[in-house]
Specification:
alpha+beta, Methanol Dehydrogenase, Chain A, Rossmann fold, eight-stranded mixed β-sheet, five-stranded antiparallel β-sheet, 34 strands
């Protein structure tokens, strides 16, 4: 890639000579037109990387993305202390902030226009393919590209609001394309499609009962995500490989092509566990690969032919890794990679919190909860309670994995009880609960936090006057929305870090802060519109989801607002707009801390910022909450 154009460099036939020729495939790439690489939006949201080109398996064709972001508006980011560009300003301008403009489509603004282009290496031709019944340019998201063994290409597309899926089959030999499968999820359950890149091509194998090519994809079956096998490639009706009131997770993990065995991770035992399963391509012989008689959360990575698997046990005990043989290989093979004896020894030397898992039933939905109790927990004491919330659509915070994180520190070090509940909108508890939040983000999620807090407030060991809530990013939004809806009746204190306060300001995907404070993915309008539709189609929903009731916020004892000034994900504009509302309403029961030049992760000149606000915040509820 050079100057946003595609080039192909060819090797000498003897494979030892110098590169001897370069073909320039495209020539008009520039500041607003990208070939073979995604723009900022597609890099972060769709492809999770900086490449947008795909070779056919025989190397005869190259397909690449053409991205035109001419109409995408720019958003300015100011740096007041540092100069990230590394450039020295001209004399006399050294005291002015450095200004960076990024192409950032907020909800309802123009998105980049994307097309697929192709290059035929034999004919030395660059060409496009017309697809029958394709989405219009301003309503098309291309989210996945998968080559077959031959000259066919599968392309996953959705409309802008991500509730209509079209699987496109392109024949580069005839240079034609058609929609072979369409699913309108808005008509099924009112929900959406997440961006996924797990489609698995299955070659034909007539000798073993597979006369046609096909592919495995995640399908919606009776309200849950399951696996479907589509064969031939243009078949719109799948062979259902899994079913039940549980879900597959980023599946399939691997396919043993020779024996027709599909391996995948699923929540069959419990929404908060992950076990490995296998099933044959005809839907028979479904069984677990890991030991489901014991609690566990596993990740897995398979060898090329699926004969061996790198199995990672994440908890709830001390994590470990080993390579094991599969039914496709030598099942007797076991080799330990990491037993984590050092971690086990270290954990034994410290007084760690205890983890207690349960469910709460709210409005007919069974929601997963984890309660972290201090060491030496005394049921006769009255403990303050901190709710940690994220709550973003499809996310999951309650998990049976080994995690000594910030929440564990609060429980063990400050002797709080720390509670996390995955409310409506979160993942792996069925689509009915998940899609309930569409078009009205914040309301049902906040309702579930409040109802759970009321349940905890009635427990004998809880001080119901000292219940607080905190969250980062989407969790910051949830903190404010919960305080707003609650109006001081249940939660006395809150801390919102880098919160969304108005979804019209936002296009990105806020990340769960409890997983990795360094995560700094900034994602396009695809995120907001997937869950809220466009503002043009849902003005009332956007108004409802805005943090706007300053008087309700004034009913809590106190809350803290924190934001990085150079946040290119959830722009500082969100917090400034809220501060304006608080000023106009003469609200005074809050504190503000801003971080100059810090982005969404708040890392500029900060080492683990959680320690800063640990001292600032979590000493406060003991003092401030007693003011009542």
């Amino acid at each position: 890639m050079k100057d946003n154009n595609v080039f192909i460099r060819q090797l000498g036939l003897d494979l030892t000579s110098e590169y001897y020729s370069v073909i320039q495939v495209t020539k008009d790439g520039g500041a607003n037109l990208f070939y073979g690489i995604p723009d900022w939006v597609y890099e972060e949201e769709v492809f999770s990387g900086n490449s947008a080109l795909w070779w056919s398996q025989d190397g005869e064709f190259l397909t690449f993305l053409r991205t035109n972001e001419t109409e995408v508006p720019e958003y300015p980011i100011q740096y007041f202390v540092s100069r990230p560009s590394g450039n020295s300003p001209p004399d006399g301008l050294e005291n002015y902030p450095e200004l960076e403009f990024i192409k950032y489509p907020k909800a309802g603004a123009p998105n980049p226009v994307v097309h697929l282009r192709f290059y035929d290496l034999k004919k030395k031709e660059d060409f496009a393919v017309t697809v029958e019944n394709d989405f219009p340019d301003d309503d098309r998201l291309i989210t996945e590209v998968v080559w077959s063994d031959g000259k066919h290409l599968l392309v996953r597309e959705t409309n802008r609001e991500s509730d209509v899926l079209r699987m496109v089959l392109i024949d580069v030999g005839t240079r034609s394309g058609k929609v072979v499968r369409e699913v309108d999820i808005s008509a099924i359950d009112g929900g959406w499609f997440e961006v996924s890149k797990n489609t698995r091509y299955i070659p034909a194998d007539p000798a073993n009962g597979r006369p046609h090519e096909g592919y495995i994809d995640t399908v919606i079956h009776e309200g849950y995500d399951h696996l479907g096998y589509f064969t031939p490639l243009d078949n719109k009706d799948p062979i259902l490989l899994t079913s039940g009131q549980w879900e597959v997770v980023e599946a399939p993990s691997a396919v043993d092509i020779k024996n027709g065995i599909v391996y995948f991770v699923a929540t069959k035992k419990s929404p908060i566990e992950r076990h490995i399963y296998s099933v044959k391509l005809d839907g028979s012989d479904f069984h677990p690969v890991t030991d489901t008689t014991k609690d566990g959360r596993y990740e897995v990575s398979f060898s090329k032919l699926s004969g061996y698997a790198l199995l990672t046990y994440e908890g709830p005990g001390i994590p470990w890794q080993k390579v094991v043989g599969t039914p496709s290989g030598d099942q007797s093979f076991v080799k330990d990679i990491e037993k984590n004896k050092g971690l086990a020894t270290l954990a034994a030397k410290h007084e760690l919190p205890t983890f207690h898992y349960s469910t709460v039933n709210i409005d007919g939905f069974d929601l997963q909860v984890v309660e972290r109790r201090p060491p030496h927990f005394n049921k006769k004491r009255k403990y303050p309670v901190l709710f940690q919330v994220y709550g973003g659509p499809g996310s999951q915070q309650v998990s049976k994995s080994f995690s000594i994180d910030f929440q564990a520190y609060i429980a063990a070090g400050l002797e709080y009880i720390v509670v996390t509940v995955d409310g409506r909108g979160t993942g792996f508890i069925g689509r009915k609960a998940r899609v309930a939040v569409r078009g009205n983000l914040g309301y049902w999620e906040a309702h579930d936090q409040i109802e759970t807090a009321r349940i905890w407030g009635k427990k004998n060991y809880v001080d119901e006057k000292r219940i607080a809530i905190w969250g980062w990013s989407y969790g910051g939004f949830m903190t404010l929305k919960t305080l707003e809806l609650d109006a001081g009746r249940t939660f006395s204190y809150g801390m919102a870090v880098a919160p969304v306060t108005d979804w019209r300001f936002y296009g990105s995907s806020p990340l769960p802060s409890t997983v990795d404070f360094s995560a700094n993915a900034a994602i396009d309008s695809i995120y907001t519109e997937r869950y809220m539709h466009t503002p043009q189609h849902n003005q009332q929903g956007y108004s409802n989801a805005t943090i706007s009731d300053a008087q309700a916020l004034s009913k809590s004892v106190r809350f803290l607002l924190m934001h990085g000034v150079a946040d290119d994900n959830v722009h500082m504009q969100n917090s400034l707009a809220l501060l304006d509302k608080l000023d106009l309403a003469s609200v005074e029961n809050y504190d503000v801390h801003v971080f100059p030049d810090s982005d969404h992760s708040i890392y500029f000149r900060m080492f683990l910022p959680c320690f800063f606000f640990t001292l600032f915040i979590f000493s406060c509820p003991y003092e401030v909450l007693n003011m009542r």
